[in-house]
Design brief:
Order of helices and strands of chain A: EHEEEEHHHHHEEHEEEEEEHHH
Number of domains of chain B: 2
Mean pLDDT of chain B: 97
CATH topology of the largest domain in chain A: Uridine Diphospho-n-acetylenolpyruvylglucosamine Reductase, domain 3
Distance between the termini of chain B: 37 Å
Strand order of the largest sheet of chain A: 4-5-10-6-7
Low-confidence stretches of chain A: none
Number of helices of chain A: 10
Largest interface: A-B, 35 and 37 residues
Radius of gyration of chain B: 16 Å
Distance between the termini of chain A: 51 Å
Number of domains of chain A: 2
CATH superfamily of the largest domain in chain B: Beta-grasp domain
CATH architecture of the largest domain in chain B: Roll
Shape of chain A: globular
Largest sheet of chain B: 5 strands, mixed
Structural class of chain B: alpha+beta
Number of strands of chain A: 13
Oligomer: heterodimer
Number of strands of chain B: 6
Strand order of the largest sheet of chain B: 3-2-6-4-5
Helix content of chain B: 25-40%
Strand content of chain A: 15-25%
Structural class of chain A: alpha+beta
Number of helices of chain B: 6
CATH class of the largest domain in chain A: Alpha Beta
CATH class of the largest domain in chain B: Alpha Beta
């Protein structure tokens, strides 16, 4: 007989994780597609530490077990609209009530709906582990240690992250940056309940007729979400016009053909999305307009 | 901390009554409802969250019971179509679905009814778009959806004040 656990706080959860082979279970919507009867689960949804949404001076801080529906209905924090747009495109209400932002990240599917947004907005993840007390310290039974790393570094491949077996993803941090134009697109067979053929997030900021920030992220066209800072910098510096930028992404992207779409379709859609977004960005920059998008 | 296995069981509230499941904590709630508690109104369509036939309400929220490990809902309140059938709201939905011919084979109906309950709880007078959104996780291969949308609209009108 295998035991599963519903810990009451983070410290307890981390100790259970360190003690043995338990599988962290947040929303369950990916795990339960292929359930394993003999699995020992660590149920995380009740942990108060992981369910919070807050903001500091620099960051939006989203607990890893916050659901898509929580993000869409909470009114406490003025979250980036482009993230909420992505949440609205996830599956349908029954799944949005279960699925979590931390789960979308740790599942590390290249088609994760929120991932292009989190990549474009330079999100980081905070990981916690339990540090047992050294033998010399008698009064304490240990403490929690944290590490923070960029999401782009955390996700390493298809369903592969650098989370260690004794670590939990506790929070997602999104820098508070003012963008003047953001866009999220999900291209799929139908609006609801579909896995994307291509997803895209663009974020740009312009100031006094000058493009100051640019991020372009593509989902479902590689083993991870694709972002290329060299191309972004070349566009920012004015080294690439739109045609040159599109050509650079044409050379960068290596989509594949699978059951959902073909390589050719994915490539064409991505390049159209880049062209359209950059056209809008440059038009806005030239006109010096300061349309606030978030 | 709560440790769970087939011996300790998993306590939760099922249609208003405290119960204890003796299934492994990783078992789908769908299977617990149908096979352990013999509540077969909750249907199994796809086992991957695509079809919505297994939808139930947990603490009032619409969820697909196929994607829930029973261990994850300890102490929480599950409402299935069998429990919902006893309510005044159900009577309104029952009549509206029948009058608008929103039921044909019936397989999607328990999930559709609970999705409608979740929708009307949030939006007592939903727009056409809100109805489509509210039912977007539930597939129906018979009606073509238009009759369902009519049924929800009719129920919202007739049930004014109930939601």
């Amino acid at each position: 007989m295998v035991n599963s656990y519903a810990p009451e706080n983070l410290s307890e959860a981390l100790r259970l994780l360190q003690a043995g082979k338990v599988t962290p279970y947040a929303g369950g919507t990916d795990i339960m597609v292929h359930p394993r009867a003999a699995a020992s689960y660590l149920f995380l949804r009740q942990l108060p530490e992981l369910g919070q949404i807050s903001a500091t001076e620099q960051f939006y801080v989203i607990g890893s077990t916050v659901t898509y529906q929580d993000l869409l209905t909470q009114t406490k924090v003025d979250l980036p609209d482009v993230l909420l747009q992505a949440c609205r495109k996830v599956a349908a209400p029954p799944i949005r009530n279960l699925g979590t932002l931390g789960g979308n990240i740790c599942n590390a599917s290249p088609a994760g709906d929120t991932l292009p947004v989190l990549y474009a907005l330079d999100a980081s993840v905070r990981l916690a582990r339990f540090e047992p007390a050294s033998v010399n310290v008698k009064d304490t039974d240990g403490s929690i240690s944290y590490r923070l790393l960029p999401l782009r570094q955390f996700i390493q491949g298809v369903r592969r992250t650098c989370r260690q077996p004794d670590e939990l993803l506790t929070e997602i941090l999104i820098p508070k940056v003012r963008y003047t134009l953001t866009e999220y697109e999900k291209i799929a067979a139908r609006k609801a309940q579909a896995i994307s053929k291509v997803s895209f997030c663009g974020a740009a900021a312009a100031e006094a007729g000058q493009l100051t920030r640019l991020a372009l992220a593509f989902g479902s066209v590689g083993v991870t979400v694709v972002r290329d800072s060299q191309i972004e910098t070349a566009i920012l510096n004015g080294d690439y016009d739109i045609a040159a930028a599109v050509k650079a992404y044409d050379q960068l992207l290596r989509p594949i053909t699978d059951q959902r779409s073909t390589a050719g379709y994915r490539r064409t859609v991505c390049l159209n999305l880049v062209r359209n977004f950059l056209t809008a960005v440059l038009a806005q920059t030239r006109s010096g307009a300061q349309v606030t998008d978030q | 901390m709560q440790m769970m296995n087939e011996q300790t069981g998993i306590p939760f509230i099922l249609n208003g009554r405290p119960v204890r499941s003796l299934s492994a904590p990783g078992t789908r709630l769908l299977e617990v409802l149908r096979d352990e508690f013999h509540l077969t109104g909750t249907k199994c369509g796809c086992k991957e969250g695509e079809c919505g036939a297994c939808s139930v309400l947990i603490n009032g929220r619409l969820v697909t019971s196929c994607l829930i490990a029973v261990g994850s809902i300890a102490q929480q309140a599950v409402l299935t179509i069998e429990g919902y059938r006893e309510t005044e709201r159900f009577a309104v939905l029952d009549a509206a679905f029948a009058d608008m011919a929103a039921v044909q084979c019936g397989f999607c109906t328990p999930g559709m009814v609970l999705a409608t309950e979740a929708l009307l709880s949030e939006h007592p007078h939903p727009s056409a778009e809100e109805i489509r959104q509210g039912l977007s996780g539930n597939l129906c291969r018979c009606t073509g959806y238009q009759a369902l949308i009519q049924a929800v609209r009719t129920a919202a009108q007739r049930g004014a004040g109930l939601w």
